[in-house]
Design brief:
Blueprint: E1 4-6, H1 19-23, E2 34-39, E3 45-48, H2 49-65, E4 73-77, H3 83-93, E5 97-100, H4 107-117, E6 121-124, E7 138-140, H5 141-147, E8 163-170, E9 176-182, H6 184-188, H7 190-197, E10 204-207, H8 214-227, E11 230-234, H9 243-249, E12 254-257, H10 259-268, E13 279-282, H11 289-299, E14 303-309, E15 313-317, E16 331-332, E17 337-342, E18 345-346, E19 353-358, E20 367-368, H12 372-377, E21 379-380, E22 383-392, E23 398-403, E24 408-410, E25 413-415, H13 417-424, E26 432-441, E27 444-452, H14 459-469, E28 478-481, H15 495-500
Parallel strand pairs: 2-11, 4-5, 4-6, 6-7, 10-11, 10-12, 12-13, 13-14, 27-28
Antiparallel strand pairs: 1-17, 2-3, 8-9, 9-20, 14-15, 15-16, 17-18, 17-19, 19-22, 21-22, 22-23, 24-25, 26-27
């Protein structure tokens, strides 16, 4: 048998369609229900469904009145506040194309995005780094807040295949890629509701991430709202140590976070009593069996892991109705067509190959912006190649077998070592540099930079340089000088050999 999961296609997305209209489709039926609570140990603020919908459509009116028109790209340089998801949905509601970005990006990193996107406007919190672009209109945070009370805009309905939003991901070339997604992407996420979340309208889902993280936007906000559930998000600056108490006080039934958050909880709170919690969710990096087992021991609840990527969100996962077999990621979500392939197509069950997605998956990207050749390079016949290796068993459960492209995971963010190396190579005195993620103790990975130079370089200066040129999550936490960087038989840098120098203590 072949390593191919195909149990029939998902339901077709209706037309005309608008992603924001789908997300807010439950608002009219339950206007007074709490859609969002922004939590802190001392004060929490709640938004009803009616308030969220009104703020979104009022902001949509304001964006159009500013001179923007459907199809215009809008770069988002906003911080960790509720204005982020409101502005994001507002743009999509009126046919604009928002580009959510991390507030950690530097001015230089953002300038490259501006040059590629040619946005019609930048939504700007003055506290967030942004290049000086006098020819591009800026809509400031105060302006966005004032727009909430404007008359509601009408949803811009149209083909579900038209572009809805763009997100950036680190590509294997070392240059961040602009990934274009259609409105139908939110419709495809319904496969995750049963295939990963076990999500219902009665759930109270607490996501540990910031508003301006795409993982939070999707799992923490868009998906719960689309079924009429309640989203719980920590306020800006809330210490992770306080989250267990917030989970309990606000009766969270589902908790979503990167694996590192679970690890920190277990370290800081050996006695976790969360009587309302049904289960946890995690994605962004591989969950260790140690964390999974320790969490179950501490709370009596399972963690369900999902695997995905910016080009297609998550599509392999465990769920309450289909827990993962030990050591596996889970299985493809019902409605997906997933295979393990080599250059000849799907391989035999039990054989390692590249994890691949059918090209017609409704959640798959439209392509990389202005990069048709790069887009096509990711396809082989009818399959989109993830670049990650896996093995499928007879029950369709998939075991993760590593990253074929040396991509790193830093706290849930995928980071290209080539991007970090390109930035560090300009530091005076460095002759060659290799970057990889290393395990410094069990289940804890950091980004490390290994370099050659005529003498040891000042680590404080190296870290300061990295801070100036790279977002915080891309910055190496360790710098080490070597006499020479290891290479493979072809003379190319071997990051695997760099990584092998560090082993987690047993």
């Amino acid at each position: 048998m072949l390593s191919l999961f195909d149990q029939g296609p998902s339901a077709a997305c209706p037309t005309p369609f608008n992603m924001a209209a789908h997300v807010l489709s439950q608002a009219d039926a339950q206007p007074d229900k709490t859609a969002l609570s922004v939590l802190s140990p001392t004060h929490s603020t709640s938004w009803s469904y009616e308030q969220i919908k009104s703020a979104v459509l009022g902001t949509g009116t304001g964006l159009l009145r500013s001179g923007l028109k459907p199809g215009d790209i809008v770069l988002m340089r906003l911080g960790n506040t509720v204005e982020f998801p409101i502005a994001y949905l507002a743009a999509i509601a009126v046919g604009l194309i928002p580009v959510p970005t991390s507030s950690q990006l530097t001015e230089g990193e953002t300038a490259k995005m501006v040059a590629e996107l040619s946005p019609g406007a930048i939504l700007r919190d003055p506290a967030i780094a942004c290049p000086n672009t006098p020819d591009i209109p800026k809509i400031l945070l105060d302006d966005l807040e004032d727009m909430r009370t404007l008359p509601p805009a009408r949803f811009d309905m149209g083909s579900p295949d038209r572009m809805a939003y763009i997100i950036y991901t680190s590509g294997t070339s070392g240059v961040p890629r602009a990934v274009c997604h259609a409105h139908r992407a939110i419709w495809a996420r319904q496969m995750m509701h049963n295939g990963w979340y076990g999500l219902t309208k009665d759930d109270r889902l607490l996501h540990a991430g910031a508003f301006n993280w795409t993982y939070t936007l999707g799992t923490g906000l868009m998906d719960p709202w689309s079924v009429g559930a309640t989203s719980l998000i920590p306020a800006h600056g809330v210490d992770l140590k306080t989250l267990p108490a917030l989970l309990k006080t606000h009766q969270a039934s589902i908790f979503a976070a990167a694996p590192g958050v679970y690890r920190k909880f277990l370290s800081d709170h050996p006695d976790l009593h969360l009587p309302d919690l049904r289960h946890g969710l995690t994605a962004g990096e591989k969950l260790s069996e140690t964390i999974r087992e320790d969490w179950f021991t501490a709370t009596g609840t399972p963690i369900f892991e999902a695997y995905g990527m910016s080009e297609c969100s998550t599509f392999i996962s465990a769920s309450p109705t289909s827990p993962a077999h030990p050591g596996t990621l889970g299985k493809p979500q019902v409605g997906r067509r997933i295979a393990i392939v080599d250059e000849n197509g799907p391989v035999s069950l039990g054989k390692q190959g590249t994890i691949a997605i059918d090209q017609n998956d409704p959640g798959l990207m439209l392509g990389y912006l202005n990069a048709e050749e790069d887009t096509q390079s990711r396809f082989q016949d009818t399959w989109f190649l993830t670049g990650d290796q896996g093995v499928m068993d007879g029950d369709f459960y998939i075991t993760y077998a590593g990253r074929a492209d040396d991509m790193m995971n830093a706290g849930g963010y995928r980071v290209s070592p080539l991007e970090v190396e390109a930035a560090l190579s300009r530091f005076p005195g460095i002759t060659t540099v290799g970057v990889t993620d290393i395990e410094i103790k069990r289940d804890v990975r950091i980004i490390a930079a290994f370099y050659t130079a005529s003498s040891e370089l000042d680590e404080t200066a190296l870290k300061a340089y990295a801070e100036q040129n790279l977002a915080r999550y891309k910055q190496p936490k360790l710098f080490q000088r070597l006499d020479a960087l290891p290479t493979n038989p072809n003379g190319k840098l071997s990051r695997r050999a760099l990584r092998a120098q560090f082993k987690a203590p047993k």
